[in-house]
Every structure is written in structure tokens, then in C-alpha cells.
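Section 3.1: Structural characterization of target chains.
Under the original work plan, the team committed to producing a structural model for every single-chain target entering the pipeline before any wet-lab resources were allocated. The record below documents one such target. The sequence was received from the expression subgroup and is listed exactly as submitted; it comprises 186 residues.
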Amino acid sequence: MKDFPITIGFDDAKFKFFSESHTTNLIGIVCQGTRMVNMVRKEIIIDGDDATEVLIELIKQNEKHVQFILTDTITFGGFNIIDLEEIYTATNKPIIAVTEKEVDLDAVKKAILKKFPQNNIVKLRKIVNAGNLYETVIETAGGLSKVFFHSKGISYADVNSLFQKVCIDSKIPEPVRLAHIIGKTL
């Protein structure tokens, strides 16, 4: 793996569930190593089912350069859940969905069943497609920190190597951290 891998990291912009707007932005930040080189964004539907397609579209805008895809969890805009397997297949690029906390899968399933009585099978299938949730430890300027992730198209050892190259002071990879910061301003 190169010393300065080119990654694209995604997070959603802030949003309110009960507002007039039914959309929020999905923001992608392209970094070479930890240096930001580009930004892309497009609206997604809050609690919708379009995040996978939008994410693929935004990746393809930078397809020639990006080597790895990073996301802040697998959910955007509420329960607009991405399908890691579909994204990996469509882009042929390794994808890692990072989360700071271990996920209570039973609580997530209950919430989906309650909120989406007509459309829960599609959303639950995307969670299953994410595969196992792995745990690793990241060494940053602040010390050692636990982080969890789902991944497709990349080994556990390569995820660890990538994290050491794209995390600075935070256990969250820099492109995802930047997308989060920008998302809070929109």
C-alpha cells in the first residue's frame, strides 16, 4: 500500500426528521494521504433508499484516482442504509464503513421494524450484506483508540495499515472526519 493512499470518505450533512425538507446532503471528501484534494456532494432522501446509488455516482466522479472508499457507518440521513456489497461490486474499490461504537444490532433491527413496517426487508438485507463488525485499535497522536468497521474487498490487515496512514489525531479516518465537519455547516 502506498504511503499516501487516495481515499474518498463520506458522511451526511445535518438534518431534522420533522422539517419541511425531506433531503440532506451526502458529502464525499477525496484525500491523498490526509490532505484534502476534492469534495463532492449530492442530496439523498432522509430515511430513503437512494444512498447506495448516490454514493456510487459520487465515487465514479473520482473513479480514476480513488483507491479506497471510507464511510461513517452504513446509515446516512436517518435509515438511508448503504449496501456495501453493491458498492464494492459497482466500483471494484475496497470499502470500509467505520464506527466509533459497537453497534447494538438487535436495537437497530427493532427500530427498523417499527419505523418501516412495509419496507423493512430491503433495509435489513443491507445490514446483513455489510457482514461482520470488526474491532481494531488505532494509534493516533492522542494514544490508542478502539474503532469498529465493516469492510468489503480488503483484508483486516490492510484495513489496519490504511487506518495508520489516514488517521491523524482522530481514530476516524481524515476524509470521513472532514466530511463530518463540513456536513455540520450545511
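The chain is about 35% helix and 30% strand.
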